[in-house]
Design brief:
By secondary structure, the chain is of the alpha/beta class. The protein has seven helices and nine strands, in the order αβαββαβαβαβαβββα.
């Protein structure tokens, strides 16, 4: 083997090692590729569930957060273990509060809407309800048929709008957005998850830009917390959904 070939092999190995280290740092949140400017997006907030354990929402508010979305329900029967406590405590702070539902491909939209409505009351200043559309279990590798999902999602959207008087927000990964939402749900505000790069060129309202933030004020087994920005200034957020 010539000296030149050995040098090329060593250089390729070094590049591969650097790429692996870089990818690991991105995964752990040490390096953030999607970090929106607070000048461009001054309204920041979190979304939480039982994974964050006991949450001091006043402490979150002191860390320059303006809103929080709390997991309430999942499917047609599950209620997040911390939902009632989280909602009560969050409403005692300056944060604007909303609740979200994890959408199931195994239950009807009508049943899921009824379950959410049973658990989540209406209060002054509440953010619109959120339907979280992403993948779980075998659906990561075998996504549910869009022709089956869309009617159920529409049924839930319509039921929540009728009850709360406002269109629900649809939270989704980019894959779920392309598969289920992009062509049929432009009437709903979009909350897009894009933790590695800027979101796609679409009309989003909220952007979840990291799932690897660490803040003071919670003690759950999950040390990270999701952070999001609102697409607008303080005046627009005060009037949202308007």
């Amino acid at each position: 083997m010539s000296r030149l070939v050995r040098r090329l092999i060593l250089a390729a190995a070094a590049l591969a090692l650097c790429a692996a280290i870089f990818a690991g740092l991105v995964w752990k949140g040490v390096i953030r590729l999607s970090h929106p400017s607070r000048e461009a997006y001054p309204i920041c907030g979190a979304d939480v569930s039982h994974y964050q354990g006991d949450i001091d929402f006043a402490a979150l508010a002191r860390q320059d957060l303006s809103f929080v979305f709390i997991k309430a329900t999942e499917g047609a029967s599950h209620v997040d273990d911390r939902y009632a406590e989280n909602l009560s405590n969050a409403l005692d702070t300056s944060l604007r509060v909303g609740c979200y539902h994890f959408f199931s491909y195994d239950s009807t939209g009508a049943d899921q809407a009824a379950h959410f409505i049973e658990q989540v009351p209406v209060w002054d200043g509440m953010l619109p309800p959120v339907i979280d559309v992403e993948f779980y279990g075998d659906y990561f590798s075998n996504p549910a048929d869009p022709d089956a999902v869309k009617p159920q999602l529409r049924a839930m959207v319509d039921a929540l709008e009728a009850h709360y008087g406002v269109k629900p927000i649809l939270y989704c990964t980019q894959k779920a957005w392309r598969l289920y939402i992009r062509e049929d749900f432009s009437d709903c505000d979009l909350w897009i998850r894009s933790v590695y790069f800027a979101p796609p060129d679409t009309d989003w309202t909220f952007w979840q830009y990291t799932d690897r933030a660490e803040l003071d004020g919670y003690d759950g087994a999950e040390k990270y917390i999701d952070l999001n920005v609102f697409r607008g200034d303080a005046n627009a957020f005060a009037q949202y959904p308007g």
